[in-house]
Amino acid sequence: MASVPAEHRTRFARLVADAWSDPTLANRYQLDPAAVLAEYGIVLGAGDEIPDLPPAPGEIAVEDLSTTAGAAMATIGTVSCPGACVGMSA
């Protein structure tokens, strides 16, 4: 399997996830991978090998985690202090 250049890994990961949930896209990738890669903003050089799509897992669920990630980031700034540290001086 050819490796994906670092600057394209996120885009290729999106392509893989989309192909796993869309058999038509996976089939198009098999027929014309360069065109599908280009649709995802991935243009390989002349000597680069076309990466294989990894096999899909049995059952997948696609979820939008952007809201959850934002909530998690908001709580990172909140620190809990056990009762023993209340009133401690610096």
UniProtKB/TrEMBL annotation:
**What InterPro entries does the record point to?**
CN_Hdrase_a/SCN_Hdrase_g_sf, TOMM_nitrile_2
State the Gene Ontology terms under molecular function. Answer: catalytic activity; transition metal ion binding
User: What domain of life is recorded for the organism?
Assistant: Bacteria
Q: What is this protein called?
A: TOMM peptide
